[in-house]
Design goal:
It is built from 6 helices and no strands. The longest helix has about 40 residues.
Length: about 190
């Protein structure tokens, strides 16, 4: 493989990484708009999204638990009121309150079911994080192998591998840094 071919290969790899990061960053942006989620890397951003989602879900479920407990208390109060000798119009109102309280408990049960999405979402985001990290590691390995195949002194290869690793492990890939690396490699 000629130096020119190697340059094209390295440039292509780095451009693909840049495109992948840009696409992922666009997706992650939707989660960042809350102001609660803002970190330096895409994987960390996704981890923050998971944590934010888990924390929010826990708070919501805690409040729903309190509502359910209140509904049980209301049910007990209504039983006590229903056992009293009250006028028919009050018994009708108590029956209506009981009916609405029972409906609220059904709505709460349905809401509990809907929150099962959170665990599934976390699992899926964790799979995306793993895929991103595995992809980045494979791309680093590929770039390192490509550099190892160049006809350069070992110290130059080692320095170039370090720069590639630094570039690909950073948050953003700057074209000027890529050009500088290629220049250092003589490509």
């Amino acid at each position: 493989m000629t130096g020119k071919d190697m340059r094209k290969l390295i440039v292509a790899i780095l451009k693909e990484i840049k495109m992948l990061e840009d696409k992922i960053e666009d997706i992650a942006y939707a989660a960042k708009y809350t102001g609660e989620v803002a970190t330096s890397s895409i994987s960390e951003s996704l981890r923050e999204v998971i944590k934010f989602s888990e924390d929010s879900t826990k708070k919501i479920l805690d409040n729903m638990d309190k509502i359910y407990e209140n509904s049980k208390l209301i049910e007990e109060f209504l039983k006590d009121l229903a056992s009293l000798d009250l006028e028919a119009k009050y018994k009708d109102k108590i029956a209506l309150i009981k009916e609405k309280n029972d409906e609220n408990k059904i709505f709460l049960s349905k809401a509990y079911e809907l929150f099962s999405f959170q665990d599934l979402s976390s699992q899926q985001l964790n799979q995306v994080i793993k895929l991103l990290e595995d992809t980045k590691n494979k791309l680093i390995e590929l770039a390192e192998l490509s550099i190892e195949n160049l006809d350069l002194p070992e110290d130059k290869k080692s320095e170039a591998v370090g720069k590639v690793h630094e570039l690909l492990s950073g948050d953003r890939i700057n074209q000027d840094e890529v050009d500088e690396l290629l220049k250092d490699l003589g490509l």
